[in-house]
Amino acid sequence: MVQKSKKPPSAAKIAAPVAPKRRGRPRAYEPDVALGKALDLFRRDGFAATSLDDLSAATGMNRPSLYGAFGDKRELYIKSYQRYRDDARAAMVDIFRADAPLRERLERIYRIALDIYLSGESGPRGCFTVMTAASEAVSDPDIRNMVVEGLTELDKAFGICFRHAKERGELPEGADPASLAHLASATIHTIAIRARARVPRRDLEAIVKGAIDVMCRAK
Amino acid sequence: MVQKSKKPPSAAKIAAPVAPKRRGRPRAYEPDVALGKALDLFRRDGFAATSLDDLSAATGMNRPSLYGAFGDKRELYIKSYQRYRDDARAAMVDIFRADAPLRERLERIYRIALDIYLSGESGPRGCFTVMTAASEAVSDPDIRNMVVEGLTELDKAFGICFRHAKERGELPEGADPASLAHLASATIHTIAIRARARVPRRDLEAIVKGAIDVMCRAK
DNA sequence: GGAATTTAATGCGAAATGGTACAAAAAAGT
DNA sequence: ACTTTTTTGTACCATTTCGCATTAAATTCC
């Protein structure tokens, strides 16, 4: 068995806490951890360069089981992306909602982002949204819509952040929350890209610090 | 013949203006236009999803000729990337060197960038550097070095720009040229990503305008 | 005209790919 | 014990992939 028998590491919806007494042969895998492994692979190699054999090996499921559980490669990619987004959102939503000073909120968001982008046993994995946008997968309309959704959601979250800060007088009168939000997203994107290129964390933190300085003092 | 018999559309090094009288059977292709076609394909589909058959069809060269001219797929990818960078640099270098006000220089740079990222018959092609960073090709050390080089070169060009503007008094005393340069690069990256996701040019221009406003008024 | 040289064109081959058919296995229901 | 249901595991298939070996074509040099 490749999978560990531990609890799923992220938000798992536990519909039935106890054994539901399913009818047939029990599954030899846990869908949540299998999806996590698939996500890891897709993040490292992208859509085209990840083969079903790779996925099969990483998840410990043979191919027919993969199909039964997640559908074909495209569907598995989409489900991996959804899982990524759920995790990322879960990691950031509290900070976006918190009632802290602008600078502190930004610092915390970028710290989480760096954690996500730099993690990975075989090198930093970057941001799935950026990876997908840059991949051939973006020629698929459904996937492209997910990318746009992801980009817009981030813009909006930052937008609320800056509007809130402006109302509290943390920003000058002339500051434009929408523009600042786009810059904040742009900073997310640039560190995601640089992380993939193995730029060390220290350098990325410096870039983030400079960006925060500009955004917080923006006229 | 697939290739048009026109002159190479971009910087072609013309070592011998007249026929050099090569010995054997003459080539049926022009290396420059063939490389351009290969670049187009790689930009659209990425490294893994572009097959040698695709490249062969697009360039009008059969596979053995491709090998003879450019080496294997990886080498062809690298040469395509070099070509891309040469073209992009050529399109921007004059603006970066020009002696114009900061705002005007930025506006012109981003206009060129949008032209590059949004062009393409079958959808916007984005930025090769960003595409490559997000692809599995980045696990190749040589390719990764090229990516880092590309990122750094852009940072430096913007850096010179902002330092120059500060010396001329176009920026406040407290402005940090390095941070602004990173923000300018980040804006390049964010529009490259969004362009791939087919965000319309109008929206990208709005993002650029907002970013320029912030960067030019930066304290 | 013939040898030498360079390229084009065809096609082979071994490996990998996405996807599926089918039988064996493991559980619950009767 | 036997059927039903669900999953597993093996094997297979058609296609695509990269790379190369070999032959045919086109040109220059002698």
TrEMBL record, chains A, B:
Annotated PROSITE patterns: HTH_TETR_2
One GO MF term: DNA binding
Keywords for this protein: DNA-binding, Transcription, Transcription regulation
Alphabetized SUPFAM superfamilies for the sequence: Homeodomain-like, Tetracyclin repressor-like, C-terminal domain
InterPro entries noted in UniProt: Homeodomain-like_sf, HTH_TetR, Tet_transcr_reg_TetR-rel_C_sf, TetR_C
Entry annotated with the keyword Transcription: yes
Limits of the HTH tetR-type domain: 28-88
DNA-binding interval(s): 51-70
Keyword Transcription regulation applies: yes
Record-annotated membrane-spanning stretches: none
A Pfam family of this chain: TetR_N
Region (Disordered) location: 1-27
Highest taxon listed in the record's lineage: Bacteria
Ranges annotated as biased composition (Low complexity): 8-19
Protein name per UniProt: TetR family transcriptional regulator
Organism field: Bradyrhizobium macuxiense
